[in-house]
Amino acid sequence: MRIRTAAAATAGTLVLLAFVMPAAHADTSKGDAVFSAITFSRTTVNVGVSTAQTLSVTATAKDDSGIKIMAGDKLVSSDGRILYADSTSCTRPTSTTMKCTFTYTLDPDRTDYYDLKNSSAGTWYFDSEVAAYDGDYYDLDPGTPFKVKRYAKLTNTQASPEPVAKGGTLTVSGTLTRANWDTNVYAGYGGKSVALQFKKSGSSTYSTVKNVTTDSSGKLKTTVTANYAGTWRWKFAGSSTTSGATAYGDGVALS
Predict the structure, then answer these.
(1) Which residue from 9, 54, 49 is spatially nearest to 181, judged by alpha carbons?
(2) Which of 46, 52, 186, 39 lies closest to 121 in space, CA to CA?
(3) Residue 240 is part of a domain; what is its CATH number?
(4) Looking at the DSSP assignment, which residues form a beta bridge with residue 34?
(5) Where a domain ends, among 110, 126, 150?
(6) How do strand 44-47 and strand 144-150 relate by DSSP bridges?
(7) 49, 7 Cβ separation under 8 angstroms
(8) Longest dimension (CA), the chain
(9) Could you tell me if residue 2 is inside a domain?
(10) Which domain holds residue 235?
């Protein structure tokens, strides 16, 4: 069996997502060996600057003769690094199937090869191979995808003056930052569009009023006309490498 080399890591919310194989990858196989299901404890892992995250991946494979071994189980990062499992637990639910659960740790604050780097953010893959007793095999390549993202934060929304005269001008500010895995600090996220949202008093629903682009330091500032009392907040949708974020709102009354 082929075993690829690189380096990686992972973690996020308990949402199970099943992928039925074969998928649209350049997988290689012989005979009827196949991965019948792969599930992730979370399909997007958002990682900050100091707290390690964990990810569990459960893979089920089958072959008419039975699965002899599941091997080479690793996570491959977007920049080609590899992370191997901290622990593995396998069972044989039937004579033709093998089910293994692999647990990985994604740590942004290490001093070795497995330390997360900014270049690691994006799409990762779970990569594995199985061999059957009759010589059949199945090799995931590049593997089953999931996301590892840099955690983003929005400071509490600030709206002033408070209270504001009806029809008056309200200034709303905030700051968008995200985890820098190279320096282990949160840094301003510049040049990103962030939605300014408003919820009228008595309502439970926010609506987007406008989109504002952060400056080079991640700061947000804009003016709006205050026609109603209610709560203002910032909301960032996220990107392919960065998590979304929602700020705490600031309630403003009319004078």
Answers:
(1) 49
(2) 46
(3) 2.60.40.730
(4) 62
(5) 150
(6) parallel
(7) no
(8) 80
(9) no
(10) 152-252
Question: Which CATH number characterizes residue 107's domain?
Answer: 2.60.40.1930
How confident is the model over 183-238, as pLDDT tens digits? 999 999 999 999 999 999 999 999 999 999 999 999 999 999 999 999 999 999 99
Q: Which amino acid is at 73?
A: D
Pairing type for strands 250-252 and 230-236 reads antiparallel
Q: State how many domains the chain has.
A: 2
Q: Which of 223, 246, 228, 248 lies closest to 160, judged by CA?
A: 223
Residue 245 β-bridge partners:
236
In a domain, 77, yes or no: yes
Neighbours of 144 (CB within 10 A): 22
Does residue 117 carry a pLDDT above 80? Answer: yes
The pTM for the full model equals: 0.85
Structure tokens at 117: 């780097």
Establish if 82 belongs to a structural domain.
yes
Q: Please indicate, yes or no, whether residues 142 and 162 belong to a single structural domain of this protein.
A: no
Where do we find the tokens 């380096």? Answer: 7
**Is residue 231 within 8 Å of residue 217, measured between CB atoms?**
no
In-domain check, residue 8: no
CA 127/CA 74 separation, integer angstroms: 5
Instruction: Say how many CA atoms lie within 13 Å of 165 toward its Cβ.
Output: 3
